[in-house]
Amino acid sequence: MLKDFYDESEPIVHPEAFYGKKKHLIDKCLIIFSSEIHSYLLNNYKCEQIALITACNGDTPVYVFEYKGEKIGFYLTAIGSAIASSYCAEANWISGARKFIMFGSCGSLDYELTKGRFIIPTESYRGEGCSYYYAKAADYIKIPTADQLEEIFNELKAPYVKGKVWTTDSMIRETKNLVADRKKEGCIAVEMELAGVQALCDFYDFTLYDFLEAGDVLSESGYEADGLSEANHNLNKLFLALEVALRI
Asked: What is the pLDDT of residues 70-87, one digit of tens each?
């Protein structure tokens, strides 16, 4: 278990110092990892930029578009728990969104179980650092919306499997022993954002809906990356996320 950094005293750094007063422009927002999915939205829907997440190494626009009569926001997030969590908090401040749908790729720890199915995480192993600033120390964090997301997937007849996942800060340190340990605990996939983003959403009372698509495969005997590009950019995830957004 990592050192407990959780503290409830008043923060010194506040979003208002960077963005001014909080805005409320939208309620729901997609957290997108794929540049191709992001471009697809910009090229195929009438999108309006409503906010800007700013940083010295580049800015990230927040857009809104209409899907089946409902306004939905989206932005292209960074990879990694700490930055993805920060983007989520800033997106809330500058747009008002409190319901986030996050969908991306992951590594499978059980190929036969995840093949051809989306993954609905029920818990995430906190193998990163950000979550320990937003939640008291524990090995796993629960994903409160897993059952609700399962109901939606059943309604949409989307293939899925539910299970524990592992959030790591470093994909090149997913060692044989760590993979074996997580598999023994029942983890079926590994990714790099969920534990931190979920902890932040719990802390600020946002609602996070997360699902994954496995691409690469990790096992104690080796690594296979053949399906990674397809899992990263598969548009089916987008269309599923949009239908989820209509139902939450």
From this structure: 999 999 999 999 999 999
Q: Is the pLDDT of residue 1 over 60?
A: no
Rounded to whole angstroms, the Cα distance separating 79 from 39 reads: 17
Count CB neighbours of 62 within 10 A: 23
Q: Could you give phi then psi for residue 7, rounded to 5 degrees?
A: -155, 135
Amino acid at 123: E
Rounded to whole angstroms, what are the CA distances from 146 to 39, 64, 122, 232?
28, 26, 6, 21
Cβ neighbors of 154 (< 8 A, separation 6 or more) are none
- For residue 132, what pLDDT is reported? 95
Q: Taking residues 26-41, what's their average pLDDT?
A: 98
Q: Tell me which CATH homologous superfamily contains domain 23-247.
A: Nucleoside phosphorylase domain (3.40.50.1580)
CA atoms lying within 13 Å on the CB side of residue 43 = 6
Q: Please tell me the predicted confidence (pLDDT) of residue 218.
A: 79
Distance CA 246, CA 99 (A): 11
* Percentage with pLDDT > 70 across the chain: 99
**Bridge partner residues of 230 (DSSP):** none
Per-residue tokens: 206:
């946002």
Amino acid at 175: T
Q: In sequence order, what are the residues at sequence separation of 6 or more whose Cβ sits closer than 8 angstroms to the Cβ of residue 53? A: 59, 60, 61, 62, 75, 87, 90, 91, 94
